[in-house]
Fold this sequence. Notes:
Layout: H1 7-15, H2 23-38, E1 43-47, H3 52-60, E2 86-92, E3 99-100, H4 114-124, E4 128-129, E5 141-143, H5 150-154, H6 161-171, H7 182-202, H8 212-220, H9 232-243
Antiparallel strand pairs: 1-2, 2-3, 2-5, 4-5
Amino acid sequence: MANNLTLEQVRVKSAKRLEGVAPVIKAAAEALIDRCYARGVWIVITQGLRTYAEQDALYAQGRNGDKRQIVTKVRGGYSIHNFGYAVDFALLLRDGRSVSWDTLKDDDKDSLPDWNEVVEEAKRLGFEWGGDWRKFVDMPHLQMIFGFTTDQFRAGKRPSQAQLDVAMVKINKTEANEEMTTEEKAAFKALQDRVIALEATNKLAKVPAWAEQACVNAKAVGVLDTANDGSYDFYRMITVLDRAGLFTKGGAA
């Protein structure tokens, strides 16, 4: 059991998937890994830059006669991942190999869901969290868009140096300067309640037929210990990662 990984060992597990993302996103993601590790929570980046072709392949799933479940609503060029300004994360389990999207897991035994702790640190770093979205809740998704739409990104718009400088100041702040205010504590408590409510509402009685093979593949490489009692978002993410090849030999974190 690899229950004593060093910070560097945890960081290296995300290095490959941070290749190609914008420097500000890479810096923020690395800072997130560091901050979470300091809190006793291990995470791994599961998705970073996604090419137009990769996005189109995901979009094709479940359409035009394909009987698989639809896993994305956007084609290439319409996801922030396509421009390197977004990442997806998962919890890295104490065996140092398996990952989890269980939003109620508390591996560090501090009575706070590890997922909530990651989201708290991510927001402090300036990330927008997909779990706050109303129309398409995306619990593992983190992004920085600097006020731009996907149309503007596609047209070549990028953050100014001034915007990047402001973002880097926030990323480089130390924990000593980040003591939570009363308002922040209240907001974090509300976030905890929201994550718990979302997970309870979306939990399914059994593995959906469209996700069964993906769960089998994930268990085969040791990423999952059980596929039961997951939410729709959990099964959707497992399916997306399976189609992306994460659960092929050598592909698991």
